Amino acid sequence: MGPTAKPTRQNRTITVDFRDETTYAALLGNPKAFLEVVFAFVLSIGFQLNHKSTCHRGGYLTRHSHYARVRLNGLTIWRVQCPVCKAVFTVLPHFVLRYRQMRPEVARDALVATRGGLSLELAAVICHISPMALYRLVCALGHHSLVTVLTRCGLPLPRYILADEKHSRCLTDKVYLPTIVSGRVLWHLGYSASKSAAAFTESYGAYQHAALAHEPAYQVRGALTDGFDSTVSSMRTLFPGARLGYCLRHALNKLPDKLIGVSASVRQGLRSKFHALLHRCRQRKSLRVVALGQRQRHFADRITTTVGEAHGERVRQWFQDKKAGWYTVLADPQMPAMSTVLDQAHNAIDRKLFAMKGFHHPGGSQAAFLTGLAHLYNLIPYQRRALNAGKCGVEVEGGRVPTSDWMLNLQILTSGGYQCAPAPPHH
Ligand SMILES: [Zn+2]
Q1: Which of 156, 190, 330, 402 could make a disulfide contact with 203, Cβ separation 3.0–4.6 Å?
Q2: How far is the CA of 86 from the centre of ligand 1 (A)?
Q3: Backbone conformation region of residue 151, classed left if phi is above 0, alpha if psi is from -120 to 50, else beta
């Protein structure tokens, strides 16, 4: 590199698959061949390189690129510079994790064990690493936002979202994890010590901020919540144009609470009736909202006749409070109706969260740690016997991942040197 080339501050690391270490070592003595392999790999994954915005190279390097070799922890690493915009790319071979002594295959096993529900401590013991090293690895992954990684996979920002917060514990304190899900993908997993509307708005606002940076005109059309005040109010503040719906399954589960003192079997029977009522309304092709209003009135009357006026009145009042949110769900066919996938995501995250002392590390960053876990949730493929086996959440939602190796994908997607190429033109 010439003396005029100022080191770039932006992280433009790229991870390149050299298949094995011997190949890498052999290529080190042959700059031309080395660059060819790098270009071929970048082409094969369908990504572009993150040049400076002024660069007209359209995301590629050429044989004329400048390069330099540097030593990093005893390993020779190449830096390649674009001759046009002077952006410098650090080429990390697949068998090295950025800033980490840990080998990717060790990280892979530990991360799978973590995702599978093992505690940080057990996963670390099994893989012969320290729990803190594993904790730091997850945090390092979490320094890249979910929006950045998911849009690199070609997923559009979701127009309809599920928003809900997981109640959890950090040592003795209650904490909340405001979450945004669309289909099988987590778009936001925040952390808040307070359940106030302001705290939730701040957390969900981080998602909005990242989304607007990616797409300045981004708007949410519909959001489904369970009706919790702070969530509803933060959605109203952040996405004023969005329809706000209330989860129908949540409604179903709440009904028995409105019938206190009624025998369990009668409550169960009424719950089933309510379930059928909601189901039939959703099946309708037209006038769904009108149908729901009518049927709910009849249902409240029926409760009055079977278990008494007080119960009927309580349920009527409850319908009155919530009906706007339920109508919203039925009025727009694209609105998600139930937050089931969000609950599944929460359960998956929760299983390890409680077992992890690392989560409560006083000097730790809960936000980065949670985002790191969310990347694992989105990118590790489902197990062989599961529905969508072999695919990860991103793929199930129609996103593209660069390679068939999830660990390599994680390395590529959380590095700063790649950007998503525009979708290939259809012929
Ligand atoms: Zn360039």
Answers
A1: 190
A2: 6
A3: alpha
CA distance 397 to 349: 19
CA–CA distances in Å: residue 377 to residues 157, 232, 374: 18, 25, 5
The three state secondary structure string of 364-389 is: CCHHHHHHHHHHHHHHCCCCCCCCCC
d(CA 260, CA 162): 30
Estimate the share of the chain in helix, then strand, then coil, as percent rounded to the nearest 5.
50, 15, 35
CA of 345 to the centre of ligand 1 (A): 39
Q: How far is the CA of 418 from the centre of ligand 1 (A)?
A: 12
- Decide the pairing of beta strands 160-170 and 88-93: unpaired
Contacts of 300 (CB under 8 A, 6+ apart): 312, 315, 316, 319
Alpha carbons 96 and 421: distance in angstroms, whole number: 25
**Which tokens is 112 given?**
């799978």
- Pair type for strands 66-72 and 75-81: antiparallel
Q: If you measure from the C-alpha of residue 426 to the centroid of ligand 1, how many angstroms do you get, rounded to a whole number?
A: 27
What number of other Cβ atoms are within 10 A of residue 302's Cβ?
14
Question: How far is Cα of residue 378 from the mean position of the Cα atoms in its chain?
Answer: 6
pLDDT digits 0-9 by tens, 22-62? 999 999 888 888 988 998 999 899 888 888 877 776 556 66
